[in-house]
Design a protein that fits this description.
alpha+beta; HU Protein, Chain A; 3-stranded antiparallel beta sheet; DNA-binding; DNA binding; structural constituent of chromatin
Length: 98
């Protein structure tokens, strides 16, 4: 049986950090989160891997070129090679709620 994964988004992270660091105001926390996320995105875009110990790693995954058919017009088209960001959670994060 697969374990239910709890979602944790940016606003949840901001709330958690504002409780943990009550001396910081909400704007500073949100600005810090945005800065860190933008740096992760920029680093991965340059084909580098970002690893945060105890949290997980971010890397770039390339999807091969492929053909698709428009269901409405039945027209065939081709998508070129695309890249997406891939996240792999650490074992520590996966077993945090066991």
């Amino acid at each position: 049986m697969k374990k239910q994964v709890q979602n944790f988004n940016k606003s949840d992270l901001a709330i958690y950090l504002s409780r943990k660091f009550s001396s910081l105001n909400d704007e500073a926390i949100i600005e810090g989160i945005d800065l860190i996320l933008q740096e992760i995105i920029n680093t991965v875009a340059l084909d580098n891997r970002v690893e945060i110990r105890g949290f997980g790693s971010f890397s770039k995954k390339t999807i091969r070129p492929r053909k698709y058919i428009n269901p409405k017009t039945k027209e065939e088209s081709y998508l070129g090679e695309t890249s997406i960001m891939h996240f792999k959670a650490s074992k520590k994060l996966l077993h945090a709620h066991d």
